């Protein structure tokens, strides 16, 4: 549940609690030692597992996901200057990639250069004009 919640900025399986209910629940919580004094200002709908399975992909094959909280709050500010050039640099320099080792969750993930590019397209849309990037080997 926490993995799925952390990935999504607005996730359909999470419902925010109103402040008085969240505080009352925190006082009654058996999980105060987990941090924040037991304050968890949301609850999960019954369909949370279905949403998590969708995230994992068909037959638990996984795949690359650009977390919406990153695409909405951070990366969208730097699409032309940094993000798309970086994405294209990876694709152009390592076009024969077979896997990606993400910093979170299970690794490695079987993925091609096109899978890498597609993960960013799903999260950010098509690249803006003029964001083709430079080959990475020019940087090293």
UniProtKB/TrEMBL annotation:
Q: Does the keyword Zinc-finger apply?
A: no
Q: Where is the composition biased (Low complexity)?
A: 131-140
Pfam families listed in its UniProt record = DUF4336
**Residue ranges of region Disordered?**
120-140
Source organism, top-level taxon: Eukaryota
Q: Which UniProt keywords apply?
A: Signal
The record ties this protein, via InterPro entries, to: DUF4336
The signal peptide annotation in the UniProt record is 1-16
Q: What is this protein called?
A: Uncharacterized protein
Q: Which organism is it from?
A: Polarella glacialis (Dinoflagellate)
Source lineage: Eukaryota, Sar, Alveolata, Dinophyceae, Suessiales
